[in-house]
Amino acid sequence: MMKKYAAYGMVGAGLNSFIGNVHRVAAGFDGLAVLAAGCFSRHKDKNQETGEFYRLDEERVYDDYREMAEKEGAREDGIDFVVISAPNNAHYATAKAFLENGIHVLCEKPLCFEVSEAEELKKLAKEKDLLFCVNYSYSGNNMVKEARELIRSGSIGRIIDVNAEYLQEYLVDDIGKGDQTMNKLSSWRKDPKIAGISNCVGDIGTHIENTVSYMTGLRVKRLAAKLDYFGQPLDLNANMLVEFDNGAHGVFCSSQVCVGHMNGLVTRIFGTEGAIEWHEEQPDILYVTKKGQPTQICYRGMAYVSQRSAEMNRLPAGHPEGLYEAFANIYKVWIGAVLKKVNGETLTEKDCDFPSIDDGIEGVKFLHAAVESSRRDAAWVEV
Amino acid sequence: MMKKYAAYGMVGAGLNSFIGNVHRVAAGFDGLAVLAAGCFSRHKDKNQETGEFYRLDEERVYDDYREMAEKEGAREDGIDFVVISAPNNAHYATAKAFLENGIHVLCEKPLCFEVSEAEELKKLAKEKDLLFCVNYSYSGNNMVKEARELIRSGSIGRIIDVNAEYLQEYLVDDIGKGDQTMNKLSSWRKDPKIAGISNCVGDIGTHIENTVSYMTGLRVKRLAAKLDYFGQPLDLNANMLVEFDNGAHGVFCSSQVCVGHMNGLVTRIFGTEGAIEWHEEQPDILYVTKKGQPTQICYRGMAYVSQRSAEMNRLPAGHPEGLYEAFANIYKVWIGAVLKKVNGETLTEKDCDFPSIDDGIEGVKFLHAAVESSRRDAAWVEV
Amino acid sequence: MMKKYAAYGMVGAGLNSFIGNVHRVAAGFDGLAVLAAGCFSRHKDKNQETGEFYRLDEERVYDDYREMAEKEGAREDGIDFVVISAPNNAHYATAKAFLENGIHVLCEKPLCFEVSEAEELKKLAKEKDLLFCVNYSYSGNNMVKEARELIRSGSIGRIIDVNAEYLQEYLVDDIGKGDQTMNKLSSWRKDPKIAGISNCVGDIGTHIENTVSYMTGLRVKRLAAKLDYFGQPLDLNANMLVEFDNGAHGVFCSSQVCVGHMNGLVTRIFGTEGAIEWHEEQPDILYVTKKGQPTQICYRGMAYVSQRSAEMNRLPAGHPEGLYEAFANIYKVWIGAVLKKVNGETLTEKDCDFPSIDDGIEGVKFLHAAVESSRRDAAWVEV
Amino acid sequence: MMKKYAAYGMVGAGLNSFIGNVHRVAAGFDGLAVLAAGCFSRHKDKNQETGEFYRLDEERVYDDYREMAEKEGAREDGIDFVVISAPNNAHYATAKAFLENGIHVLCEKPLCFEVSEAEELKKLAKEKDLLFCVNYSYSGNNMVKEARELIRSGSIGRIIDVNAEYLQEYLVDDIGKGDQTMNKLSSWRKDPKIAGISNCVGDIGTHIENTVSYMTGLRVKRLAAKLDYFGQPLDLNANMLVEFDNGAHGVFCSSQVCVGHMNGLVTRIFGTEGAIEWHEEQPDILYVTKKGQPTQICYRGMAYVSQRSAEMNRLPAGHPEGLYEAFANIYKVWIGAVLKKVNGETLTEKDCDFPSIDDGIEGVKFLHAAVESSRRDAAWVEV
Question: Complex ipTM above 0.85?
Answer without folding.
Answer: yes
